[in-house]
Amino acid sequence: MKIMIVGGGGREHAIAWAVAKSPKCDKLYAAPGNAGIAELAECVNISVMDAPALVAFAKEKDVDFVIVAPDDPLAAGVADAFLDAGIKTFGPRKNAAIIEASKAFSKDLMKKYNIPSAAYETFEDADEAIRYLESQKAPYVLKADGLALGKGVLICQTLEEAKAGIQEIMVDKKFGEAGNKVVIEEFMTGREVSVLCFSDGKTILPMTSAQDHKRAGDGDTGLNTGGMGTFSPSPFYTDEVAKFCEENVYQRTIDAMASEGREFKGVLFCGLMLTEKGPRVLEFNARFGDPEAQVVIPRLKNDIVEVMEACVDGTLDQIDLQFEDNAAVCVMLASDGYPVSYEKGYEIRGLENFKNKDGYYVFHSGTKFDDGKVVTNGGRVIGVTAIGSDLVEARANAYKATELIDFDNKYMRHDIGKAIDER
After folding, report:
1. Which residues contact 338 (CB under 8 A, 6 or more apart)?
2. Which of 272, 213, 268 is closest to 241 using CA atoms?
């Protein structure tokens, strides 16, 4: 098959790595791809949001199967454009991707179908939101309704901080149109766990668990980011927790979406909080997480193309989804100053150290070619993933591997997976 991946980050590189291994893949394209993906696929400089150009390219090249990976194009209906053109496509339609594109929609869905989550209220008026905050106790959780690159959630410790957050989201429009509406949620405490699930609209198959680190600094300090590292599996996601979520979250959500006329085919990302009262949903995403994909996909035993085809064809009940009995840790190498401001264009040294190095992976997030060299081209630059027999070994391997890559302005957290030691 000729396969095309829409996207150009670390998640897409992990997907491309798995797709390229599949005996079903004869030719791989990526739009726009990056310097790492270019080693596996033919990259074409088309924006992920340019549906007409993407579809035209797929038709010109007789592409058989398309994978739309990032959140923005899914929310904008890029998967719809391929499907409507008769091209087999993995990724939910726009009317299903709304489960990520609108936090208000997903919260209302959870309330209607009794899917466990935090109490909340939704506001379109900043003054009303502030009046509500004044009636609540700290801490406060503010969520921009729309997509904000994983950065639209503010946890505020004081009322003054929360009021400033409302100003930032709804008035100053820090996250653009995503802040036209805001969700104010009950603050929950506990361990966070991410579980990605394949779905064909009827059957849902949970993947192995993972745990992300969102804050920019060590000790979970600093601003929210797209993710500074992750590990899999989570030792806190027990069999008991998994059973509860399978019964009360995963299948119930897919059934709810079907009942609403929004059949969900693709990857449903479930962000969970393991509270004293049991698991609660923090958020849903409509695609693989980034960097969760970088630790979950390398542990997948199945042919990923076969699983994705089953999601599209409605035959996921015939798949026996399996993962390796090991562990993976990913440490994100970023540009110093991320997520606020940072410089690009620095040469990345040491990538050759990972050629044919079994159990170690380098997934490019923000890179490009410049005069024959691979240079930095984003805030999150490279995810270094390592496998181990358990999480402690995988973590040690990952940090050892980060020393093999260098670039000016390199920054990383030094405590990814530290929770492993605190069990």
Report:
1. 216, 225, 379, 380, 411
2. 272
CA distances from 200 to 12, 398, 401 (A): 21, 34, 37
Bridge partners, residue 117, by sequence:
281
Q: What span, in angstroms and rounded, lies between the C-alpha atoms of 270 and 262?
A: 17
Report the run of H or E that residue 282 belongs to, with start and end: strand 278-285
Give the phi and the psi of residue 210 in degrees, each rounded to 5. -150, 165
Residue reference for tokens 């399996």: 322
Residues 6 or more apart from 172 whose CB is under 8 A from it?
none
Tell the residue number behind the tokens 């592409």, with chain if given: 63
Give residue 146's pLDDT: 86
Question: pLDDT, tens digit, for every residue of 223-265?
Answer: 889 899 999 999 999 999 999 999 999 999 999 999 999 999 9
Q: If DSSP codes are grouped into helix, strand and coil, which group holds residue 307?
A: helix
Give the model's pLDDT for residue 223: 87
d(CA 227, CA 237): 20
SS3 118: coil
Is it the case that residue 27 has pLDDT exceeding 60?
yes
pLDDT score of 419 more than 70? no
